[in-house]
Design goal:
Elements: H1 2-19, H2 29-49, H3 55-76, H4 84-103
Helix pairs in contact: 1-2, 1-3, 3-4
Amino acid sequence: MNWVLLVLAGIVEIAWSQSIKPTENFTRPLPTLLCFALAAAAVYLLSLSMRTLPVGTAYAVFTGIGAVGAIALGIVVHRDPVALVRVAALSLIVGGVVLARVADPG
């Protein structure tokens, strides 16, 4: 169950990362409120997953999911550039997340 919470926390972190830009430097109240709510929800879910998962493993997986999701959405939604080196970096992050999961089945 804690791994499910951790994956959910990572998904919320992806949503949070996408909610930052619409705040326009935190000058728009509603997008800013959504941004803060998503950040709080992501950290709360992360903290719940840490009840049994090691802090280092949980945080590394959390940030890995967030990073891969943010970059993937950037490529798909915002037409960010795709380069072989970028794809290789994403592959390494995904590999690290998978290894962390295998190393600590929790």
